[in-house]
Every structure is written in C-alpha cells, then in structure tokens.
Amino acid sequence: MVVSIERTDENVSSARQRLLGWYDRNARVLPWREGPGAALKADPYRVWMSEVMLQQTTVPHATPYFEKFTALWPSVADLAAAPDERVMAEWAGLGYYSRARNLLKCARAVVNEHGGVFPADEAALLKLPGFGPYTAAAVMAFAFGKAANVVDGNIERVMSRLYAVKTPVPQARPLLRELAARWVREDRARDWPQALMDLSASVCRPKSASCLICPLREDCAAFAEGQPEAYPRKAAKAPKPARHGVAFLITSEDGFVVERRPDKGLLGGMLGLPHLEWRAEVWGEAEIVFPSIRHCRDAWENLGTYAHVFTHFALNQQVWRIELSADEMTAFLREHNAYQGLSWADVKTLPTVFAKALKL
Ligand code: SF4
C-alpha cells in the first residue's frame, strides 16, 4: 500500500510543535547538551567533543569518556597542549582511532588559527580537521543555536519512516537529507534536531517503533502503511572479508609486553600486542615465527582464537602466551628495544582488538 500524507507548511509547523512539546517533557539530560529549561549552557568545545565521540559509539559507552576527557582537559587549549600518547591512551576502548588523532589536530587548529574559539560559521568549521557536514551542522545547531540541517543515521531513520522512502540506504541518503531540510526552521533551531534524536532513541527505535505514543504518528507514512520497521530499506550487504592473525602475549607476574604501532595505518600510534601480519590465510602452527626468547618452543601455549570485526574486515586472531619470570622479562625488554612492558592495570589503555586477547 502506498500512502500519501499531505505536507503543507501548516502541517509541518503543527507536527514540529507536537514533537517539540513532546521534547520539552521527555528530553534526555546529557552532560554536553543545552536542553529545555537550559540548566546547562552549550559550550562549543564540549558539543564538538561529544559529537566526535558519538560517531559510531552509543551515548552510554561514550559518556564516561566524555566525562574523563573534559575533566582532564577542560578547555580546547588544554587538549591542544596534551601529549599525543596520553590522548591516544585515554581514547583506548572507544574505537575508530583516527577520530582521536583528528581530535588533537582540530584542537590545535582551533588554538592556532582561531585563537582558541570555535568559529560560529559552518564553512569555517568544515575546514577544521575531522569536521564533515554532519559535525559542522551539529556544532552550529547544538552549540550556537543556528538553523542547520543535522542528519545522522537516527534522523535518517525517522525521515525514511515519515515519508516511507522506498529507495534503500545508502543510495537514499541525499533524498533523506533533502527531506530533513524541509523541517528545519530558525525557531528552536537547537531543540529541533535534539528532539528528533531523542525521538529516534526512545520511540522510533530501529527494531521497534512505538508508534502509538509517537507525537508524529499522524504525519507518518510508514505508520499509515502499518510496517514502520520495514524502513529504512537497506541494500544487501556484502560479507566482510576474513583476515587471520597471531598475537603474542608475553607475560610475567607484573604485566605484559606491548609495542607502539606505526603512526600511519590501522590503530596508528596506539599500543598493541606484538602480532603477525593480518592476512587472508589462516596461520599454520609450523609457520609462526615467535618473538625470540631464551626458552624452548614448547613454552608457548595456545590460548585459542577470538574474533574482532573492523569496518572493512573481520579478524580471527590466535593468541599464544609465554610466562616469564621477572628477571627474564627484564632481560627480554632490554634486548628488544621495540617492545615495552605494561602492568596488568594498564589493560584499559589497549585498543579493544588487543584487550580481547587478554580476556582469553
Ligand atoms: S509513527 Fe512510528 S514510525 Fe513514524 S516516526 Fe513515529 S515512531 Fe517512527
């Protein structure tokens, strides 16, 4: 069934009022957000930080990182002056590490090129490292209260349902942006995208839309069709290619051995376990070259294999462990300059792909 909903300016304005009224009663309280009642004044630095962290990350997972980062570095100038290694270590566990590198580059650009003040101009924001159309629009709306077309995956979902868009994403993205722009007004410019996001988080959820309590129900073509969760339509996904690796866990009572990864490439600049190349073929035991340690080969124990999914491939990684005495560990680190020791308490500074190996 194809359903057509009349969308005059008047209808859109009245639907906006209903959603904003719902938002006034149901807005989430978030530590970076200026919400209804304005208990907190929006600060561009905090808004930007939250947006970088929330890319590909949920609010509950990102919030403790946001609290930690803004406590350690309360202003953009503090962050710009922070050592790279410290920022990368504190980012561990949030994933997509290029975001952390861009976070630093952007903080330094704001200090060096804009006197430590984020520009209230979308074109100028877009020139800053790590800023794309979404982040620039989000900072304009959430931090500066300007009318901007903020469209993330959640707002795409609401638009795809309001209009029952049959084209699958990602092809539908330009159309969804254009549909979202039709709802943007100067009036309550900050609240509008925040209201859409809160609706998408608690009412218009991906797998279960609670249409009966939705303030946009009478404006929604997917509800009228009776199958809201059928939207957004998705193109069939190609399976991710598999890669295989071998990680080495060299431990003593005090901790374990890590290496700093090259600055460029996947997980660039982060700490990681020593490992063999991530390749298409499974590593046979006979071809594994273990780090040289004055022990017989039999001292290595195979702990098993774990899976970790990156954006472009799925990794299956074997883990081999060897336990050294404190003296052997000291000698090993002295002989191998490329490696360094970490205490067990430092597990949290490892990216998730390596922290999983320690869980084995
Ligand atoms: S009526 Fe249902 S599908 Fe439509 S916007 Fe509301 S919750 Fe989403």
Please explain how this structure is put together:
- Adenine glycosylase active on G-A mispairs. MutY also corrects error-prone DNA synthesis past GO lesions which are due to the oxidatively damaged form of guanine: 7,8-dihydro-8-oxoguanine (8-oxo-dGTP).
- It is a single chain.
- This protein has 360 residues and is of the alpha+beta class.
- The chain has two domains: 9-230, Hypothetical protein, domain 2 (Endonuclease III, domain 1, Orthogonal Bundle); 242-359, Alpha-Beta Complex (Nucleoside Triphosphate Pyrophosphohydrolase), CATH 3.90.79.10.
- 40% of the residues lie in helices and 12% in strands.
- It is built from 14 helices and six strands.
- It has a three-stranded mixed sheet with strand order 1-5-4, covered by helices on one side. A three-stranded antiparallel sheet has the order 3-2-6, with no helix packed on it.
- Helix 2 (44-54) packs across helix 3 and helix 2 packs antiparallel against helix 8 (133-143).
- The longest helix is centred in the first third of the chain and has 18 residues, at 9-26.
- The protein is elongated, with a radius of gyration of 25 Å.
- Residues 158, 161-162, 203-204, 209-211, 214, 216-217, 220, 222-223, 228 line the site of iron/sulfur cluster.
